[in-house]
Amino acid sequence: MSTHARPLAVRLAAASDDELTALFRARGIKPDAPWQDFFDAAEALLEPASIERALVALPLADAAALLHAAEGHGQATPHLTALALQDPSGLVPVPVAEQVAGRRLPDVAEEQPQHAASVHDPAPIAERAFTTASRVADMLLVAREAPLGLLATGTLAAGEKKRLAEAGIEQNADDLRTIAEDAGLLSTSDRRVQVTTEADAWLGLPFADRWSRLAAAFRRALPDGVRDGAGWLPPSSWPHAYPWDPSWPDREAGLRRRAHLLGLTAADGAEPDWAAPLRRGDIVDTASLEQLVPAEVDRVFLQNDLTAIAPGPLQPALEVRLRGMAERDSAQSSSYRFTAESIDRALVEGETEASVLGFLTALSLTGLPQPLSYLVGQTAQRHGLVRVWASETGTVVTSSDPHLVQAIGIDRGLRPLGLTAEDGMLVSRVSAETVYWAMVDARYPATLVDDTGNAVSMRRTPPVAQTTAAVPSYASLIARLRARQGPDADAAWLDRELEAAVRAKALLIVDVGMPDGSTRELVLEATGLGGGRLRGLDRGANVERTLPVRSIRAVRLADLPTPD
């Protein structure tokens, strides 16, 4: 048992609950740690693995201060003291000093690194920022149709990258996902990436507001080592931010890529005007950025070949709704194509024939072409041909076309639903939503209705609530440690030393207080502890002795070798 744990245990016992909570959280302690008292806690915090986890998380300034203190030259640093890597007097516990020994810091120039100069031609950077916001929107629309799957490594699976490539996201998919997650637009759980309830509102924002939220979220997500107040340090200093973290080079490269995608830095490290307020920690100012991006339009040309052509970037809210009822020809174009499937998808998600026609009429610069009006009407008429609803006994499927009901009943692809014919209807024990989506996938014109017969708007993958990382509670752990906290720390520590010596059958030098006030030193091989007494073999007299623990003044390990 480490003798270095005792002073730390005393410090922990004297700390407040808030201080302990902050320490345990910073050191990554599990709330269900099997500690019984503060001595257990101190020993665990001084284990090499625990110290290593703390060291790799130290930013450059703290790492330098700890290295200096371990060499006997430093002063107490509040952050290092709060992490239990240093005591209030500035001394570094021996186990920590041993872990620090031999470590090096990067050769960083003494002078303060300067922030990047302004770019000479900001137009390409503004275009990249505009494209990134658009690609994030594309990713949200893809994830809204079906969640994105992740590999065990945390990156997007190949199949998902193929889906995204079809939507125009051929590069930087994982960085775009991280940007969206930082902004609370995507949420990952069980290796599934889903849109959040915040996504729809963001999709309806104009470019400047979209970008502002993404850029501000990027700043909030920056690790402490690269932060400067509410802003960030010069990117030239980022490679050295966490000198003892082997994963930092990859993390830092990801930060640089995302800053580049968001138009916060140029390829040569220069800084556009709109990045400066963010870097300083001020509010976002997009005035200079908006001057360099194309103006958004609010009208399209509807054509007889069932296409729509926008004369420029369509306003986001209009584009999102239009893409709900039309397919975009390519990610780089402002051309959209209407099909029966795309109109049917809009009807599934809550549009009606009247709402589709009304929206297209208001959007069009050329009126509503007759072929498009006919397509919408025919699709809407067919869409409600099969009706699905939940009854008290299960799910009911009906249609005004009895031949269609018969076709559904014998469809082999729908056999897992267990559909049975009953009075001209089909009945299933499977939930109404499952039956409905099975019908949609089988390309039947199904509509889900409620008990009053009104159509129910459905989305296959409903958005999830925006979640934040759960903050662990250490209340029960701290309460357990407090409950075992006795009034006499010296006696408690002595008991632990003796228990550990008995388990190890260690050879001890025991200082025993005698009745006359003198102290006698005995060399014992500890064999038992109980009833307030220590039993052991006196190696000097070769006899068994039983000593009252209350008479033992001090204990230390003997350097004498134990017999074979």
Task: Kindly describe this structure.
The longest helix has 23 residues, at 123-145. The protein has 23 helices and 19 strands. α8 (123-145) crosses α12 (207-220), α10 (173-182) crosses α13 and α17 crosses α19. The chain folds into five domains: 5-100, no CATH class; 123-290, no CATH class; 301-379, no CATH class; 384-448, no CATH class; 486-557, SH3 type barrels (Roll). 41% of the residues lie in helices and 15% in strands. It is α+β, with helices and mostly antiparallel strands and 564 residues long. It is elongated and about 115 Å long. The strands form five sheets. It has a five-stranded mixed beta sheet with strand order 12-13-11-10-14. The two termini are 22 Å apart. Residues 560-564 have low confidence and may be disordered. β16 and β17 (533-538) form a beta hairpin.
Short description:
The protein has 564 residues and is of the alpha+beta class. 41% of the residues lie in helices and 15% in strands. Helix 8 (123-145) packs across helix 12 (207-220).
